[in-house]
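Example 175, ligand coenzyme A.
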Amino acid sequence: MGIIRKATMSDIPEVQAIIETFAKRGEMLPRPLMELYENLRDYFVYEENSKGILGVCALHFAWEDLAEIRSLAVKDSYQGMGIGSKLVRVCISEARAFGIRRVFSLTYKPEYFMRFGFVPIEKELLPQKIWSDCMRCPEFPKCNEVAVALDLQKPTEGTTEQLSLIKNRKGLEQT
Ligand SMILES: CC(C)(COP(=O)(O)OP(=O)(O)OC[C@H]1O[C@@H](n2cnc3c(N)ncnc32)[C@H](O)[C@@H]1OP(=O)(O)O)[C@@H](O)C(=O)NCCC(=O)NCCS
């Protein structure tokens, strides 16, 4: 049985190790420790008692009505078990809880996000602020990431329950 919960400071080494595994393969961007510490509150982890942290994902506020889902990764041996989906969904729920109207992701795996209703968009449609972040990226300007976005203006079933869990900031999801 696993839970999704907010990351804590002591999780950061495990979180960074998971991200690094995929960053080294060029599947996602690396996240330096300083960035992880500064943005700790963005991060959710999926944890199983006996196995530790198996997956990670972050929701980063970008603009007044816009947030980014970033650093989605599930350890190789645990992929295909629904962990990535739970992490994406909890980020979407948190975005709703904060009144965000649209979430986006810059990803090498746009098809995965399209499973949740995201649609590809032109990167240029994102606010200029996103581009200033891009300029700090080691891949800039030759970036092959695709921008995908999900409109959150339509409420969905189950939202209220998940929001109250998020407000508790404890066990967010039992499996
Ligand atoms: C992408 C990733 C997060 C998915 O996590 P996961 O826990 O395996 O995902 P889930 O178990 O929730 O979903 C698995 C389903 O997604 C599908 N899927 C996985 N990767 C996919 C992709 N790149 N494109 C489309 N579908 C994909 C699987 O075929 C499976 O489909 P099924 O349910 O119909 O059998 C995981 O593969 C991963 O960590 N990859 C490396 C890091 C990465 O690429 N992150 C993406 C952000 S840049």
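Summary: The chain has a mean pLDDT of 87.
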